[in-house]
User: Which sequence fits this backbone?
């Protein structure tokens, strides 16, 4: 009851000050006088005054009493009422009323909740002392060792855990790479490519160029003409086209990097999922001259909200990294690292990937069956990863198709017009991983109905 009373006094005096009833440097009633007036304890009044002093509304002078501090009026911009509220923004960003074919989601029904909860309890029980202390700047060593084993077995990369750095998504890793290599370097990326990566490079204030694709991936002639110092690539499953870079083009780019003393950032974002043949070996595994910085993430294999990625640095960059890490700390909570370590060490991760691959394969087979009934639709880049391209052989203006998709609230992306040399017709980027298996047929048929609906 006492705390409620002191807050009443606090709010009343604060309101009087804000309304201008009490002016700057005006003396207010003493604790004893106000206590008598309000029939309260002087301690209650004192608590209210102390809170007002702490917030800067009052100041005290010894043996003189309490006075009103100088107040500064808040200026409100003329256009402030035009901005949308948080509620409005959330409504605009909501996918509830869209048929969504986004590429940044996964099938959450497959997440091993029970196993994850069990391992979390074990970590709290077994690792609570280590968990609350400092984590190595590169990330938990035990987890890095498991990642090294995984890379050796599934990506053809033989690397020591000492060269693996864990970070919270591509944001922290790209920022660290730019710090390591320098902002004065000339960076380049594929066009079309990851919009987020483009934004990250621009946010780091570097010179950024764009290199077009040909039938084998990054155009090697443009690369040689532009001559960047660093190139970002997605060779195992180019985003968004889905093409896989052949070994000949990979070697050409590696040879270029060696001759120019340049670096390649290999983004291996969804390499776990390949539905025909074995996974494509990583570019880093072919590199013999230490020119590749390898990046991967757990957002596709676990969940997008699981903000954990990692990179493998060339040996000669580790010296620079040691200097950089003196003022950088790992951006991933230690608790999550311990749980993922157990998840990988005890074989759950491999089983989870296998289970997801099976489910995604089922979805893809349904999609291919549906699309095969429409000769004007061509599917590309579906053998690897969790999205594909849907090329629409039509004479209709692309802008009319876009307007129709928007009108029906279908949430997807259109391939950049820069790729007309590869796909001359309107081409949609279709992400299917987040669509429930039982909804795949309905989603695809509704999408196709809208595509061919002229009115």
Assistant:
């Amino acid at each position: 009851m006492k705390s409620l009373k002191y807050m009443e006094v606090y709010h009343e005096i604060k309101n009087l000050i804000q309304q201008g009833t009490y002016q700057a440097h005006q003396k207010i009633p003493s604790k004893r006088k106000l206590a008598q007036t309000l029939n309260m304890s002087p301690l209650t009044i004192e608590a209210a005054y102390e809170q007002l002093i702490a917030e800067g509304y009052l100041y005290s002078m010894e043996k003189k009493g309490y006075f009103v501090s100088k107040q500064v009026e808040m200026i409100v911009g003329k256009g402030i009422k035009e901005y949308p509220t948080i509620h409005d923004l959330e409504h605009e960003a909501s996918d509830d009323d869209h048929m969504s074919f986004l590429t940044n989601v996964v099938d959450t029904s497959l997440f091993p909740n029970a196993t994850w909860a069990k391992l979390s309890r074990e970590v709290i029980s077994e690792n609570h002392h280590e968990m609350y202390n400092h984590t190595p700047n590169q990330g938990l060593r035990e987890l890095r060792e498991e990642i090294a084993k995984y890379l050796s077995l599934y990506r053809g990369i033989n690397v020591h855990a000492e060269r693996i750095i864990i970070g919270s998504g591509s944001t922290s890793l790209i920022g660290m790479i730019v710090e390591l290599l320098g902002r004065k370097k000339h960076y380049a990326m594929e066009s079309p490519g990851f919009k987020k990566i483009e934004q990250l490079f621009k946010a780091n204030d570097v010179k950024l160029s764009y290199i077009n694709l040909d039938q084998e991936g990054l155009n090697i002639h443009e690369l040689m003409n532009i001559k960047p110092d660093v190139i970002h690539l997605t060779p195992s499953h180019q985003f968004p086209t889905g093409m896989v870079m052949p070994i000949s083009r990979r070697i050409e780019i590696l040879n270029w990097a060696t001759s120019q003393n340049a670096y390649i950032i290999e983004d291996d974002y969804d390499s776990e999922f390949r539905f025909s043949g074995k996974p494509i070996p990583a570019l880093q595994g072919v590199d013999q001259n230490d020119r590749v910085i390898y990046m991967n993430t757990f957002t596709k294999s676990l969940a997008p909200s699981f903000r954990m990625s990692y990179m493998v640095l060339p040996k000669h960059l580790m010296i620079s990294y040691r200097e950089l890490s003196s003022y950088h700390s790992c951006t991933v909570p230690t608790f999550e690292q311990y749980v993922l370590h157990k998840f990988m060490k005890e074989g759950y991760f491999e089983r989870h990937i296998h289970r997801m691959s099976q489910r995604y394969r089922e979805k893809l087979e349904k999609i291919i069956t549906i699309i095969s009934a429409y000769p004007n639709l061509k599917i590309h880049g579906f053998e690897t990863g969790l999205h594909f391209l849907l090329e629409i052989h039509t004479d209709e203006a692309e802008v009319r198709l876009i307007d129709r998709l928007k009108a029906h609230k279908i949430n997807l992306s259109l391939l950049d017009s820069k790729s007309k040399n590869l796909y001359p017709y309107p081409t949609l980027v279709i992400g299917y991983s987040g669509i429930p298996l039982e909804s795949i047929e309905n989603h695809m048929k509704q999408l196709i109905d809208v595509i061919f609906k002229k009115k």
